[in-house]
Write a structure and sequence with these properties.
This protein is an all-alpha fold. Among the domains are: about 40 residues, no CATH class; about 30 residues; about 55 residues, no CATH class. It contains seven helices and two strands. Strands 1-2 form a two-stranded antiparallel sheet. The longest helix has about 35 residues.
């Protein structure tokens, strides 16, 4: 549940009317979302405020230079007599992170596309399960020039011998026909 004080709620809902359905109300499917997204936020004495690091040493050069300077909280309060213009804090928005994010998205697009294809194949396999023996039966019965009774015997033999069946299924149709002839008539051309 997202809870806000009544005053904050009123101001926020005025600025964001679409959020009214979600604030100060239980979230639908919260337990499912908790399982999927995780519920690993620190609580109690382990929770940290965004203001907790004020006054600590901060390396402004992203560890490029070895000297870190202490950052003190701003204790100067502006008043009417103070005409000094305070420098504005650095902006949190810059062009560089946006470009980096865009490049990262572009790099991951083929990976995501491949992942989607794989998931679709898995979902299709779950929806339409086909046992290898069904494919084997089709491959045996599509051979011309043999009575169906003999082809049924070939299928039964291959069904019992998975190694032979897998080898049979990957062969071209002409070689499958030769294999069936060898099986039915029992001749061996290695002599």
């Amino acid at each position: 549940m997202i809870t806000l004080d009544p005053v904050v709620y009123k101001n926020y809902v005025e600025a964001h009317p679409a959020a009214k359905a979600f604030i100060n109300r239980p979230l639908e499917n919260y337990e499912s979302l908790k399982i999927i997204c995780g519920d690993d936020h620190a609580t109690g004495s382990y929770a940290k405020s965004i203001f907790e690091n004020f006054g600590e040493r901060v390396d402004l050069e992203d560890n490029m230079s070895g000297d870190a300077t202490p950052v003190a909280p701003n204790t100067v309060r502006p008043n009417e007599n103070n005409t000094e213009v305070l420098p504005s804090p650095p902006s949190s928005t810059s062009v560089r992170p946006v470009r980096e994010k865009k490049r990262a998205r572009e790099k991951s697009a083929p990976v995501i596309s491949h992942l989607i294809d794989v998931v679709e194949k898995v979902a299709d396999a779950i929806k339409n399960p086909t046992h290898w023996s069904e494919v084997l039966y089709e491959r045996v019965m599509e051979l011309d020039g043999f009575p169906d009774v003999l082809l049924e015997e070939v299928f039964d033999h291959l069904q019992e011998n998975e190694k032979d069946a897998r080898a049979f299924m990957v062969k071209k149709k002409a070689f499958r026909k030769v294999w069936v002839e060898k099986f039915i008539y029992g001749y061996d051309d290695s002599n």
